[in-house]
Design goal:
The protein contains eight helices and no strands. The chain has one domain: Ferritin. The longest helix is centred in the first third of the chain and has 28 residues. α2 runs parallel beside α4. It is mostly helical.
Length: 227
């Protein structure tokens, strides 16, 4: 009987220790799926894009694709850099998601024989000088504190949503509309995740690009699916 109670006590202690270890090592930034909800299935998307017609591409569409390819890289690169600084998992999760968003735009560049502005450029290097300046500014701010890093994430997604809205208004090609719709959905999920983490560390965020009304509608709605 003593052995039974002894084994039971040990088992209980082990369970408690495992639970305690798991709890202590669980990041505060595990907001809903963080970004498993925004990773695009690139293979499936490629099939969808290639099944749609090759419509004539306007100069505005061409310009927006080139810009969007680097803007998605900016998001990825900033998140990789801030993950290396803070070790906060949300940046690792979302950088992986942004990689698939970069690949989604590349599908369109390849389809329309548009040169890739990213090429073999390493992390933090951009052809677009405005994006290069923005990257430098965002990384500098994000390295100040974890709260500032989360705000940088929210700012990037805020800007992405705004830019995608403006780009979509100039697009009538079905395949580009499809990709931009998916990118917008992903950015809204990213914004929800970053805002959740901002609140967890006692901060706040005011949108800088989209309207307050749109921002409130996004953060008060559920994570979107269908990637």
């Amino acid at each position: 009987m003593k052995n039974i109670w002894k084994h039971a006590a040990i088992s209980t202690l082990l369970v408690a220790l495992v639970f305690s270890f798991s709890f202590c090592n669980k990041d505060d930034d595990d907001s809903p799926s963080n970004d498993d909800n925004a990773i695009i299935n690139v293979a499936n998307l490629r099939l969808q894009v290639n099944s749609l017609p090759n419509q004539p591409i306007s100069p505005e569409e061409r310009t927006s694709l080139v810009f969007m390819r680097e803007e998605e890289k900016l998001a990825r690169d900033v998140y990789i850099t801030l993950y290396n600084k803070w070790g906060s998992r949300i940046f690792n999760n979302i950088s992986s998601s942004e990689q698939t968003h970069m690949e989604a735009v590349l599908i369109l560049l390849n389809k329309y024989d548009i040169p890739d502005p990213v090429g073999s450029n390493p992390i933090g290097v951009f052809n677009n000088t405005a994006l290069q300046t923005l990257y430098n500014e965002l990384v500098a701010k994000g390295k100040l504190s974890v709260l500032d890093a989360y705000k940088v994430g929210a700012t990037i997604e805020d800007l992405d949503i705004f830019d995608l809205q403006n780009a979509t208004a100039l697009v009538d090609n079905q395949d580009i509309e499809l990709v931009y719709s998916m990118l917008s959905k992903g950015s809204r999920n990213h914004l929800r995740a970053f805002f959740s983490n901002i609140l967890k560390v006692g901060g706040s965020y005011t949108p800088q690009y989209i309207s307050q009304t749109e921002f409130d509608a996004i953060i008060n709605s559920s994570m979107e699916t269908g990637f």
